[in-house]
Amino acid sequence: MLSYYERRILEVLEESRDGLTTIGIAEKANISKTTALKYLASLKSAGKIDYIEVGPAKLWRLVNSRRKGGRVSISKEQKIKDVLRELREVSGLMGSVVMDSDGLVVSSDLSWSGDPERIGSLILRLLQMGNRSAEAVGISPLREVILEGIKGRIIAYNEDDLFLLAFGDKSAALGMIRIGIEESVKKIKDILHK
Predict the structure, then answer these.
(1) How far apart are CA 120 and CA 74, in angstroms?
(2) Is 69 helix (H, G, I), strand (E, B) or coil?
(3) Strand, helix or coil at 56?
(4) What is the pLDDT of residues 12-62, one digit of tens each?
(5) Backbone phi, then psi, for 92, in 5-degree steps?
(6) Which CATH class is domain 74-192?
(7) What ranges do the domains of the chain cover?
(8) Which pLDDT belongs to residue 74?
(9) 188 with 162: CB under 8 angstroms?
(10) pLDDT > 70? residue 72
(11) CATH number 1.10.260.40 is the correct assignment for the domain at 4-62
């Protein structure tokens, strides 16, 4: 059973579209920062909330919540995970993540033990910066960004506020990945809108 402070923190986070810092939560919940830290840790260990690091601050949010449409059902999340697994197997990817426009993970399929929320939020930040650049030169909205590294690449695909992030090594064929991403996004949109 949740304590008064835990319920209050969850209520405050439910009202926040973008998440809140620890100090923001303490102020809105009318509790001390020390009390907020104690109960944030408890809620995080219970899997009810999580945070992403934004610069030096932690931005706390409800886990896997979709504030506009409620939570993604477990069956939809599993269907999306199946689409991502198929994309990984067909395209030779190391993994992928689907995020909404709030930067919240809808589903992920990673072949390593990475934190999809953290990875996704960093890449989403790059997409937002890229969108600003695209607007400045008149080519917005930005549809796709490809980041090439020495050992691999990240493909970030944006369609109607749905983001698919794909991670591949250098041996994976970029053309096949791009075709697979476009097909997967169509399937995922169909799942989400049923």
Answers:
(1) 20
(2) coil
(3) coil
(4) 988 876 788 999 999 999 999 999 999 999 998 888 888 887 778 888 988
(5) 75, 30
(6) alpha beta
(7) 4-62, 74-192
(8) 65
(9) yes
(10) no
(11) no
